[in-house]
């Protein structure tokens, strides 16, 4: 896919090592380790017979073709991956392809227009730095990463085709403007080629945006052009053809919209809860969006803001660099210059509305898109989990990989819900290679399955130490597998390449249609991590109809999950995740203890609970001014972190104290008091009951086996 030649010259990918082609027998060996646990022995043996036949016959021929292809290209996989994963995919990009971010709030509030103006100015300047070569090269721990994807960040747009999509890359001259969406209408915002200082530029852009906000009338959803881009790709292709045929003006307006550097949505919604915020960044109501654009900055009426990225040629990790620039500069503006100083926009700035004409056929397409959008939203369940009992720092103290630890939590959560482990996709970056993107790190292994079974199917017959060892083995295997994927030694991209190496008319080898082979990559759990402090939300949709899309963030003191499915029980999976994380910490920190030691801790919790209940039923004596203030805060109205997911969220509001207010019968009870002093008084009893229930009903059940 031809990109921005200026950027390719500034940041040549050819200086990096080429993506390797694994040896065929290595790929087969890796496949065995991750596919065998998913199927019965008979199913797996049937698959292996076909795989062995492939290795003996067609495999070497296709492997040779791959190596020949690699010798003449910077990246042998790139074109095939784009076609397979994105352009031939006829699903909705809104619900099944794009990713979204929701950013933390600015320290001081900014108006919608001023915040959007800041984000626009930061983005335009970021583009200038990128295209002039002033942007520092991406690297991880000193190792250079490929910058090829940056060619597609600005001035690009995906287009629907009759059977296959494509992405168009517009020149800087064609894409010097910014598209703006508000109340169903689209506008073009023009900024001078050479901007002045940041403060005056933001002021000028703000004035133009505020005028749009003040004067634009609601167009109505049934005249929304943007919602067409959320439709199935075949439907959007037909609607786009109809749109272009209605009038010449439509063609010009659509070109202006699609060729913009990026799009800014001035959304009229004001999301407050975590779930509302995530949904609004994910899809909103579909009106003030154009999901084919390379990226959309979404600014809500209440000053919250987010990002929606089209995934075909860029990955979320690439966009995060731009997002960090936007967020940090908006935060600085909110502290230093929260109000505009300019009365009118300076010379060189301007805005105009893009006009579209309609006929009955186009309106029919819009109605169809609205019906599809509303039906799809209603069919989905998005749930979030904020788990703040511990985070990365505590996981590292357990001497395990935080990412692999969370992957095993998802395995256990799914197993508790369904009593089997699913094919699981974790995205592993291959950007250390020229034009590298991702490889599939498969999270299921013999170790993870055995551990899940020990935790759920036979807890009473497996010792605490054995469960701990199984978990550590599963985590270690996942860490090693992911490391191999990052080195280009995965399974799925290699097998995809072998399949694509077939020539026209050649019979497809039986392995590629085998139910075990195809079923092993039916990703019922599609997962990926991006951990950055600027994020308050992050996610995407499921990749198969009977699966979950799970985005997660690992922060120092907390873990965050966004779970999307087609009403399969996303909220319930969040609860299972919370339970799994509690159990795993207990397991890894208590495996060395004897049963009587664990029982002593349970008794300590029970005693503490009894003391708290007795204390709560009688008048309390003031302890200190600090504790009195904390109690006053605890009794004030509180806003839940999430409407639907409160039960799956561990609250850590740092207010209230119970230190010294009841006797600590044992050292363990004293530690419990230390842990609980963070909670306000109206949450302590609930927290203790939950902790006691966890020990007795779950942890103690499998911590004290009758045998072994």
Word description of this protein:
This protein is α+β, with helices and mostly antiparallel strands and 708 residues long. The chain has an eight-stranded mixed sheet, with helices on both faces. Helix 7 (112-132) packs across helix 8 and helix 20 (570-590) crosses helix 24 (681-703). The protein starts with a helix and ends in a 5-residue tail after the last helix.
Radius of gyration: 28 Å
Q: What percent of residues adopt helix (DSSP H or I)?
A: 40-55%
In total, the number of strands is 18
Shape: globular
* Overall mean confidence score, pLDDT: 87
Low-confidence stretches: 620-666, 679-683, 693-700, 704-708
What percentage of amino acids are in beta strands?
5-15%
Largest sheet: 8 strands, mixed
The chain-level structural class is alpha+beta
Widest β-sheet, arrangement of strands: 11-7-6-8-9-10-1-16
- Figure out the total of helices: 24
User: What is the rounded distance between the termini?
Assistant: 60 Å
Record the SSE blueprint.
Layout: H1 5-10, H2 24-35, H3 41-56, H4 58-71, H5 78-87, H6 93-96, E1 99-103, H7 112-132, E2 139-140, E3 143-144, E4 156-159, E5 166-169, E6 178-182, E7 185-190, H8 198-215, H9 233-246, H10 248-258, E8 263-267, H11 274-282, E9 295-300, E10 305-309, H12 316-336, E11 350-354, H13 360-379, E12 381-387, H14 392-397, H15 402-418, E13 424-429, E14 438-442, H16 446-456, H17 464-486, H18 492-500, H19 515-519, E15 525-529, E16 535-539, E17 548-554, E18 559-565, H20 570-590, H21 595-616, H22 625-634, H23 667-676, H24 681-703
Parallel strand pairs: 6-8, 8-9, 13-15, 15-17
Antiparallel strand pairs: 1-10, 1-16, 2-3, 4-5, 6-7, 7-11, 9-10, 12-18, 13-14, 17-18
């Amino acid at each position: 896919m031809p990109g921005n030649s200026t950027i390719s010259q500034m940041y040549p990918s050819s200086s990096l090592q080429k993506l390797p082609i694994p040896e065929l027998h290595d790929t087969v060996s890796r496949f065995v380790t991750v596919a065998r646990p998913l199927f019965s022995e008979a199913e797996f043996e049937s698959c292996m017979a076909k795989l062995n036949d492939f290795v003996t016959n067609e495999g070497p021929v296709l492997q040779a073709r791959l190596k020949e292809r690699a010798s003449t290209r910077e990246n042998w996989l790139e074109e095939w991956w784009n076609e397979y994963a994105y352009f031939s995919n006829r699903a909705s990009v809104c619900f099944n392809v794009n990713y979204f971010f929701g950013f933390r709030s600015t320290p001081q509030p900014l108006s919608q227009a001023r915040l959007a103006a800041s984000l626009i100015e930061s983005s335009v300047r970021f583009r200038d730095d990128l295209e002039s070569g002033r942007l520092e090269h991406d690297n991880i721990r000193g190792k250079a990463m490929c910058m090829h994807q940056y060619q597609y960040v600005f001035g690009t747009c995906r287009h629907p085709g009759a059977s296959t999509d494509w992405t168009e890359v517009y020149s800087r001259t064609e894409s010097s403007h910014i598209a703006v969406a508000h109340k169903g209408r689209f506008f073009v915002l023009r900024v001078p080629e050479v901007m002045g200082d940041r403060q005056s530029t933001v002021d000028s852009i703000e004035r133009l945006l505020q005028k749009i906000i003040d004067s634009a009338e609601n167009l109505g959803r049934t005249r929304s052009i943007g919602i067409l881009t959320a439709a199935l790709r075949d439907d959007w292709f037909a609607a786009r053809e109809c749109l272009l045929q209605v009038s010449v003006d439509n063609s010009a307006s659509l070109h202006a919209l699609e060729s913009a550097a990026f799009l800014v949505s001035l959304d009229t919604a004001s999301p407050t809860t975590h779930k509302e915020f995530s949904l609004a960044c994910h899809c909103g109501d579909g009106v003030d969006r154009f999901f084919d654009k390379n990226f959309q900055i979404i600014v809500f009426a209440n000053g919250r803001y987010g990002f929606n990225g089209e995934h075909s040629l860029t990955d979320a990790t690439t966009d995060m660099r731009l997002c960090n620039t936007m967020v940090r500069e908006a935060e600085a503006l909110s502290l230093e210059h929260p109000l505009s100083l300019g009365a009118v926009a300076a010379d060189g700035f301007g805005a105009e509305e893009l006009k579209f004409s309609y006929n009955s056929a186009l309106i029919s397409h819009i109605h169809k898109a609205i019906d599809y959008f509303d039906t799809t939203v209603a069919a989905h369940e998005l749930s979030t989990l904020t788990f703040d009992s511990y985070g990365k720092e505590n996981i590292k103290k357990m001497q395990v990989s935080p990412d692999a630890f969370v992957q095993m939590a998802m395995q256990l959560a799914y197993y508790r819900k369904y009593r089997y482990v699913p094919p699981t996709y974790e995205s592993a970056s291959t950007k250390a290679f020229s034009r590298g993107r991702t490889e599939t790190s498969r999270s299921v292994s013999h170790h993870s399955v055995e551990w899940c079974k020990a935790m759920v199917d036979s807890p009473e017959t497996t010792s605490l130490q054995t469960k701990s060892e199984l978990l550590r083995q599963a985590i270690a295997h996942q860490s090693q597998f992911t490391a191999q994927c990052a080195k280009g030694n995965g399974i799925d991209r290699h097998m995809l390449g072998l399949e694509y190496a077939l020539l026209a008319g050649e019979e497809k080898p039986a392995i590629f249609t085998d139910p075990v082979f195809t079923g092993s990559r039916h990703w019922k759990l599609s997962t990926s991590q991006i951990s950055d402090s600027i994020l308050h939300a992050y996610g995407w949709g499921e990749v198969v109809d009977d699966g979950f899309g799970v985005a997660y963030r690992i922060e120092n003191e907390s873990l965050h999950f966004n779970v999307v499915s087609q009403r399969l029980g996303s909220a319930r999976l969040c609860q299972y995740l919370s339970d799994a994380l509690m159990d795993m910490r207990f397991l890894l920190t208590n495996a060395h203890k004897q049963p009587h030691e664990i029982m002593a801790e349970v008794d300590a919790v029970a005693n503490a609970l009894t003391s708290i209940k007795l204390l709560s039923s009688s008048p309390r004596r003031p302890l200190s001014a600090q504790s009195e203030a904390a109690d006053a805060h605890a009794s004030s109205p509180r806003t839940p972190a999430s409407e639907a997911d409160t039960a799956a969220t561990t609250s850590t509001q740092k207010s209230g104290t119970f230190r010294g207010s009841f006797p600590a019968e044992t050292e363990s009870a004293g530690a419990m008091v230390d842990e609980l002093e963070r909670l306000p008084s109206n949450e302590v009893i609930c927290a203790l009951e939950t902790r006691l229930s966890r020990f007795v009903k779950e942890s103690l059940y499998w911590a004290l086996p009758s045998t072994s």
